[in-house]
Design brief:
By secondary structure, the protein is of the alpha/beta class. Strands 1, 2, 3, 4, 5, 6, 7, 8 and 9 form a nine-stranded parallel β-sheet that branches. The chain is globular, with a radius of gyration of 19 Å.
Length: about 325
Amino acid sequence: MRYITFSKNIFIPVTNVCRNACDYCVFKARSLEEAYVIEKREFLEGITNCGAVTEALFTAGEKPELAHLAHFFTDRLASLGCSTLIEYTKELCKLAIKQGLLPHCNLGVLNRAELKELRPVNASIGLMLETTSELEAHKNSPGKDPNLRLAMMEEAGRLKIPFTTGILVGIGEEKGDHIRALEAIKSVHGQYGHIQEVIIQPFLPKPFTPMGDKTPPSFEELKDVVRAAKDILPNEIAIQVPPNLTSPTELIELGASDLGGIAEKTIDYINPESPWPREDELRRRVAPFELRERLPIYPRYIKKGWYSEEIRPLIERYADEEGLRKRDGF
């Protein structure tokens, strides 16, 4: 490996209405006053003058139609001319494509029909596995059932969707659970070959949440997980470490090869207290490795043609002969 990759994105929270209630989450709307659905006008204003960004990262609460604030969500969506999260997000993806952005959606657990609906307007799709254990932190989160998440990953593989997943470290899992989670990801990839990256993400406690007084994982724990990922996962799967949540230098030396999406124009809505580092800072931190920009679809899937005609013009505009972002930005 001669370089470390990252992408430039803009972080778009479609809605914070969610059926899950994870003990560590500050993204989910807890009351009607906190709930929102992003409007198209607001979205378009947000992506205007966003610089040399190529990725539109769409996140949302999982299955808001089934959440305790479902009435707000469905009424709000109806006023915007749509009836489901998938329908509305697909419209936003089409707007993003028109503005020169490649969409990547992470909307929680989706079924085959929903994945098929989103596939043509996405360069890749994501879902964190998080863990293969049943945890206290997920006791009120039906969508965090590991079997549901693995089933979605398998469906994405059958549909040849370049896929991002990952594990969340320090949320109460048992010792050795990260091994089982990594083995599960490896098994799914072994069947379909579609996992492009695995994120190793540390839990950071948030005030006013049930886990607000919990201790985050130590750096030694993160190093152990990265070592395990390097040993377990095939070399073609990138190991991603988020540079706004941890120091990547030592983790790169242990096998991490990607820093994920960097959104200099927007905050990390999942970890709002952790600002993104700037590109020039990243270059200093990964030295002596070279920092290379990539697209939300990894080079080998560009070479395989795992993308739709709707986003082909953008991939041809942005990708170089290696499948990474053209160095001149065009």
